Amino acid sequence: MTDFLQLFFSGMATGSIYALAALGFTLLWQASGTINFAQGEFVMLPAFAMVGLIAAGAPLPLAFVLTVVLAIGVLGWAFKRGVVDPLFRHGMMPIVVATIGLSIALSNGVRAGYSAEAHPFAGMFPDRIFNIAGVTITLADCGTLAFALLLVLATQSFLARTVTGRAMQAVAQNTESATVLGINVPRMIFYTFAINAALACAAALLVTPVYLAKFDMGVSLGTKAFFAAVIGGFNNSRGALLGGVIVGVGENLAAAYVSPQYKDAVALALFMVVILFKPQGLLGRKEERKV
Amino acid sequence: MAANMNPQDTPAIEFEDVVAGYKDFMILNNLSFKVRPGSITLLIGPNGAGKSTVLKTLFGLLKPRGGRITLGGVDITAADPKTLLARGIAFVPQGRNLFGQLTVMQNLELGGITLGMKTARERIPEVLDLFPRVRERSNSQASALSGGEQKQLEIGRALLLRPKVLLIDEPSIGLSPLVVQDVFKLLRKLAAGGTTILMVEQNVKSALKISDDAIALESGRLVLHKPASELLADPHIERLFLGGAIETRAA
Amino acid sequence: MNKRNVVLAFLALAALLVAPHFLKSYGLYLLTYWLVFILATMGLNLTVGYAGQKSLGHAAFFGIGAYTVAIMMKAGLSFWLGLPAAALLCFLVGLALGFPALRVQTIYLAFATLGFNTAAWLVMRNEEWLTGGTFGINNIARPSLFGMSLDGSLAYYHFTLGMTIIFAALLWGLLRSPWGKAFTALRDNPIRAESLGVDIRGYTLLSFAIGAAYAGIAGALFASLVQFIDPAPFTVGSSIMMYLMVVVGGPGYFLGPVLGAAVGVVLPEWLRFAQAWYLFVFGTAVVLLMIWLPDGLLSIPDRLRARREAREASAARSAAAARHGGNA
Amino acid sequence: MSAPVLEVRDLRKAYGAIQAVGGVSFQVMPGEIFGVIGPNGSGKTTMFNSVLGQIEPDAGEIRLNGADITGLSPLELNRRGVGRTFQTLQVFGKMSVRDNLIVAAQEHKGSMFSRMFAPGDSGLGPKADELIDLFRIRHVADKPAGSLSYGQQKLVDIAMAFMSEPALVLLDEPCAGVNPSLVGGISTLLKELNARRGGSFVVIEHNMDFVMDLCHRIMVMVEGTVMAIGTPAEIRANKAVLDAYLGN
Amino acid sequence: TIKIANIVELSGPGTTSGTNFKDGMLLAVKEINAAGGILGRKIETTTNDTQSNPGVAKGLTQKAIDQDVFAIFGPVFSGSIMVSMAESRRAEIPNFTGGEAAAITQQGNPYVFRTSFTQATAMPKIARYITDQAKHKTLALIYVNNDFGKGGREMLMKALEKSPTKIVADISTDSGQIDFSAAVLKAKGASPDAIFVYTNEEESARVLRELRKQGWTKPVIGETVLTSQKVIELAGEAANGAIAHVGLTVDAPLPAIRAFRAKFEREYKYISDHNGMKGYSGVYALKAAIEKVGKLDRKAVAVAMKTLKVKAADQPGILMDVEFDKNGDLDRDSFLTEVKGGKQEVIATLPPLSKK
Ligand SMILES: Nc1ncnc2c1ncn2[C@@H]1O[C@H](COP(=O)(O)OP(=O)(O)OP(=O)(O)O)[C@@H](O)[C@H]1O
Ligand SMILES: Nc1ncnc2c1ncn2[C@@H]1O[C@H](COP(=O)(O)OP(=O)(O)OP(=O)(O)O)[C@@H](O)[C@H]1O
Ligand SMILES: [Mg+2]
Ligand SMILES: [Mg+2]
């Protein structure tokens, strides 16, 4: 039982990391109808920005704030101007492929221009371990989980409860109608990507101590986050958290009780079952009627 | 009326030699016409004549390639929809234009986004009074509504703005006859209150009855511009409805 | 095909036949590699570009084809048995993968195929008794044809070229038959298509199965080309690359995969002058290409034609307007 | 008295608390043009989609020429000679208008396998051209259907339903957005097909001139139920119908 | 000039190893050129990335052959080597690989040479330590499920087969894995005397941290990677106490290696791992062989390589005395290291396997 609890809580901690990255997927899907295959790299880049700033002597909070500002400019504004604006009205395929290209460019740019090595990154939580009834948990685990919860709820209620949030969703659903109603479409898209960039920075802050800052950290992070988002529900931010935790815990239990070689297969099997029987995800909303 | 419009009056809407279309395909070629303030002007013509294109161009959804569009004397040729909404124009396009995954209420609120939420929320009940069918469904997802209910919601969403100029593209599509009558009556009332209305309709007979002027388009050019009453009284009226008849008359 | 296209096709063929004489072994290898990917992405183009089924699992079929041939040849069977077996096996697995596609559509289908790819990869990696696991299968022989050994790189190139042309021609025939329209109908509006008697079930399954068979054949050729396989080239990442090739080349354009595969396979090699930065340049090039041509490289002729026709049509419209002299 | 082509018995469909269709029964006779009218949201489209296998009805029985077809897929129904249009525009946006029409009938020619070797237009070119001329869309015949005006798309949509000359056609608001001159054309086409081949039609429409002129019998739906079924004259004289739907 | 092609993993999963290997190799070339080259000729290098993909590696090897290079360095991943060495053999070009898989030199290819121990050499050495010195009776094994991890696991099991040490838990993990709580829990659950960790750098660091988190206090043993500079940097305090056998380590108490470490760090701003040393010493091995033959003859150089003995005293770049056997495998001293106070320390020097 202790083992189980240990696995469960460790899984929750890992899961909340996945959730943080998955949150970006659900946000972009709801508010712009796009899928960003460079989402993992959007976390990697701020991680390196922070590593660089800290190396240059900035304390962590300052490094974080500067990184957020930088990210909103580059991953938010520049990405929107450069990639989203020209491709938005051409449907999903071109944007998806552009983000694939971008992910190749970003990870290899960091590799060639900065370093191919993994860099350690001290988190904002002190290295503290709690032992509760035989289950060990670090302070960082708890902190990450709490933060993930906070960010997910904040994003969710922003989208659902504020007019701006709904206007962002409106743009994703029907851009032309949004224009006709006087919704400032470019600005809504900017908000979407700016929030996404800020979330990516928060994710980087919490994820990097575990993932380590490395040019290819985005690949596995992105994949896991993607699975998490699908399981939880692509069009629901709370789904990201649920999905993340399910993947994290599921993997751990599978590795311990099924077969470590096929532990990925468990997340996968779950993923397939969800897709086939509830394609919109566990918490997702069904898409509209068609005829 | 239109033909003998007072030259001193500033037209509510004026097209001067407007050229517009899609990408490189120009649909409207040097189109010119004027719309009197506070009137209902009906835009008719065969399918594909360019009626919707006129409205889209006017509302800034298509950028004209040439010519000038003025609104109450002010040049709005290059203005975007947001600016135009601020000037009091509202547009109900053809087809379905709702946010399917949002609720009816949320759709209405977004319709009033340029007003500020407070004003919008205050006005929503008035609109729902006009369309009881929509009120019943106010918490459903918009995509769950029937075709006619959706159209009513769309019209209501535009009326929320209390526009000075209303562009409305085939409002009768999908509406049952009683509702069409109601909507037409409503438009008449709005016009009486000073709203300028430019309407496209294929339901020509009923639409002419509430219109002041009529403009007929064919292949992107203007083939007639007359008071609606003249058209109704025209002995060739039945032939006129037969689309192609306009062609023979003009030639 | 009009006359100009026939001439172009002949020129291209001539170039492909002459080119090897100006290339060293690396160039020849690259050219063969490219042909293999043309064949694979042609299959994906059918699934994604024509039939509109979002598939992110194509590399799995590519892998299944490669492993089938490799395992059969290791067991002492002929390549000529392995090739049809690879095609058939992929066809059947493709058919099976089509079933989720009947339940879910668009991005959800993409998710499902992505999951399938991961599963296939796990099997390739973990079932060491069959696939050699991460150690892979080495020394895969090249086949011989009518007693002629295809071991040399030039011979193998010609062989691959021949196969590519044959299967491209078959696909061309299929797409210009009513099937082509049925696939497109399925892509543009499945609901309407079904109500018009288009068996969307059948066509969906077949679009997957045929696309998969093409990947299987390409995989078989790939195994013999590299003469070594391990699970690495058959990951989800590779599927995503293939998807990229189709979209960059022009989805739904018959020759899109030719250009797309060139971008995916040849372009990175060209860019090697950029040294450590070459993949960065490649990624950036893809982004720029998409922004410039969202419908793919092959949309250029269409774009030009559409522009010309639009000009003519507007001219005709304005001429008509002038003739009628404006108002009635 | 011949047997009905289409027979619907006690059809029901609810969405949560909303009873969209609440027990609808009617029969369509061979060679009959059957109109369906009713206020917005009265369940006409829902009834159509249930009959046509697009959505699953909660209860009820549907028979085609005596055979039970409840729950059959749209594909099966099409193969049994049932054609339809949708209330919303449903064309193949990226295909040319001509290809739209060809694809609408090609699946009725030969087996799937034999179609692999058939000519590209399946020999349907002349038929398509005929309808293109009839609906006056010749000048846009080679344009992608998605780039047409609303009314033009509607015409393509209707033409598609007639390409394979089905024995029973269900049309959901065919005249919406169509120019009056062509409304007459549609009317003529239906009458002609009806007279020439004895085809049956079910038409939902809010254009009363069209319905009254064309239909042999009309059914009025209100709040998911049948208020009246009768000849145009009977319907026009029905006080309840006037109040609920027609006005004056 | 003497052309050498460097074909390595610079992207994909092999990036870290490939980059180190390449940097070490280029450093050696730079030094040799500065000192007048080999036999008075300068070395010219080209570097190409295999993307960790054998299909690409094959093409690049052909490209190198087309360019008529004298020798090929890399790749590091065994799958890629399998294809590249088949090509280089056909063209009769000496090929120095960075791979450690035993199978590479078991194919009787006269043109392939190691730059490091194979797992077949290294694992028996560490096994000997586990059984004879540390006297662990039971061992839990955590390995990474790729060719590197699986190859090492096989060799270790073979080496321990006849010893009293039993492997009580055999746990596969993935490359790129984040959460090792299940693996560690399982290993702990078997209550072994020691845990053997055979994964790549980042994963090793995560395992060490998880071990510390779950309160493991008994020994953690590894091979080469576990006590590497990178792992220490990434795992921080949790690395303390880890013990590993290291064929080549920048922390060896030898002047040549100290010097190398300093030069490498100055040049590339990071600390080399064993792959960097492999690339570096490999070039010097080639130099020694060419000088022994006295002319630029590939065949003769390949033959000479097969029995080459180089002393660090004569050829400082070789870093340590080394002997190549007829398979192209090499043998030499190696070290037992332990992490103490955040530093790798050599606790014993192990003689070549053949010497015992
Ligand atoms: N998927 C759905 N979910 C919830 N309610 C629905 C759904 N589909 C239809 N309805 C409701 O059922 C009722 C009937 O809709 P239907 O589309 O059949 O009406 P209709 O008679 O075709 O109307 P119209 O003339 O406006 O097209 C409407 O009130 C609608 O809101
Ligand atoms: N997005 C588009 N791209 C290209 N051409 C278009 C596009 N939309 C419309 N057209 C063309 O422009 C012409 C005019 O279209 P418009 O929508 O203005 O017609 P309309 O008069 O409103 O017709 P309807 O009565 O059918 O609505 C048509 O010939 C149509 O084919
Ligand atoms: Mg229109
Ligand atoms: Mg309806």
Which descriptors apply to this entry?
heteropentamer; B: 251 residues; Rossmann fold; 2 domains; four-stranded antiparallel beta sheet; 11 helices; C: 328 residues; mainly alpha; two-stranded antiparallel sheet; binds adenosine-5'-triphosphate; binds magnesium ion
Element-level helix/strand string of chain D: EEEHEEHEHHHHEHEHEEHH
Radius of gyration of chain D: 18 Å
Task: Give a short account of the largest sheet of chain E.
Answer: 7 strands, mixed
Distance between the termini of chain D: 36 Å
Estimate what percentage of residues of chain D fall within beta strands: 15-25%
**N-to-C series of helices and strands of chain E:** EHEHEHEEHEHEHEHEHEHHHEEEEE
Distance between the termini of chain E: 42 Å
**Main β-sheet description of chain D:** 6 strands, mixed
Counted beta strands of chain E: 15
Low-confidence runs of at least 5 consecutive residues of chain D: none
The CATH architecture name of the largest domain in chain D reads: 3-Layer(aba) Sandwich
Oligomer: heteropentamer
Compute the number of helices of chain D: 10
Q: Using CB atoms under 8 Å apart, which protein chain pair has the greatest interface? A: A-C, 44 and 41 residues
* Integer tally of domains of chain D: 2
The largest sheet of chain E has its strands arranged as 7-6-8-9-10-14-15
Describe the overall structure.
- The complex is a heteropentamer of chains A (291), B (251), C (328), D (248) and E (356).
- Chain A has 291 residues and is mostly helical.
- Chain A is 75% helix and 3% strand.
- Chain A has one domain (2-218).
- In chain A, strands 1-2 form a two-stranded antiparallel ribbon.
- In chain A, strand 1 and strand 2 (135-138) form a beta hairpin.
- In chain A, 64% of the residues are buried.
- Chain B is of the alpha/beta class.
- Helix content of chain B is 38%, strand content 24%.
- The two termini of chain B are 24 Å apart.
- Mean pLDDT of chain B is 87; it is low at 242-251.
- The model of chain C has no long low-confidence stretch (mean pLDDT 90).
- Chain C has 2 domains: 25-295, ABC transporter involved in vitamin B12 uptake, BtuC (Orthogonal Bundle), CATH 1.10.3470; 304-328.
- The N and C termini of chain C lie far apart (46 Å).
- The longest helix of chain C has 27 residues, at 200-226.
- Chain D contains 10 helices and 10 strands.
- Chain D has 2 domains: 1-81 and 167-248, Rossmann fold, CATH 3.40.50.300; 91-165, no CATH class.
- In chain D, a hairpin with a 2-residue loop joins strand 1 (6-15) and strand 2 (18-28).
- Chain D has 248 residues and is of the alpha/beta class.
- Chain D starts with 5 loop residues before the first strand and ends with a helix.
- Chains in contact: A-B, A-C, A-D, A-E, B-C, B-D, C-D, C-E.
- The A-C interface holds A 35, 37, 82-83, 86-87, 90, 92-98, 100-106, 108-109, 111-113, 219, 223, 226, 230, 234, 261-262, 264-265, 268, 271-272, 275-276, 279-280, 290-291 and C 100, 103-104, 107-108, 111-112, 114-116, 118-119, 122, 126, 191, 236-237, 240-241, 243-244, 247-248, 251, 275-277, 279-287, 289-291, 294-295.
- One adenosine-5'-triphosphate sits between chains D (15, 18, 20, 38, 40-46, 87) and B (137, 140, 144-149, 174).
- One adenosine-5'-triphosphate (ATP) sits between chains B (22, 25, 27, 45, 47-53, 94) and D (140, 147-152, 177).
